[in-house]
Known about the structure:
two-stranded antiparallel sheet, 11 helices, globular
Amino acid sequence: MAAPVERRVVVAPGVALHVEQRIGAREAAPFVLVHGLASNARLWDGVAEHLHAAGHTVIAIDQRGHGRSDAPEAGYDLDTAVADLVALIDALELERPVLAGQSWGGTVVLELAWRRPDAVRGIACVDGGVVDLAQSYPVWEDCLAKLTPPALDHLTLAELESRIRKGVSHFPDRAIAAYLHCFRTRADGTVEARLARSRHLTILRSLWEHRPSTRWASLKTPTLLLLADAGDAARTTAKRRAEAVALAAGGKLRSTWFSPGHHDLHLEFPERVGDLLAGAVREGFFA
């Protein structure tokens, strides 16, 4: 596979996002791939290659504060994430791309499609953008206690890699390398997350305050839901409840379950995810 072209795209005064661009056929629908909270564009590598091999232009982005994008002090709310993505689409002159977002990225692409249906031809929410977080955690302090990321800054890169491998022992080396890209190594050999903890929690709060369930009834954009059943009964039940709300709204929506499936479906099953996305284009679903 040819290496992607790396670019920096200005999306706001003093803020540029790092993107990895693969140019495909002019007549093929372009894709923009949006990662989740505390993640990075590299988790989309396999999907991006698969879509590009099918002829599509593919743009994988690092959202602000993540990966190699700029990390300003402010702008870690949903409104700004949506505005950044709109600005990127405009700057790259993409003609109504398909947006695929994983986890928090699913929320971002859903909100953009709901606000600006003219800007996109379709979206895919990859194990994200569906559940109202406040239904699982009605009190913010409970959400904060459960979903605050663990402190890892005492670990060396080798220790972190060992810990990740134990958690996803069936993932290939390439996937582990993508996870490690969420961190940088300090002079003393320990790691730190590229996304600062305070900014992580600001994004988490914006997710907790958001209600994706209120978007389905008036959503005009064709939508794929790719949902993971990782064996956690409570989480799967919450997803199925949210899926039912989305389907009942009567929009153009298609839902596919991966069972079993890791939350990072795009990393675990890049070819299958890529096939579902490219197939939806071929079948005219994103029309």
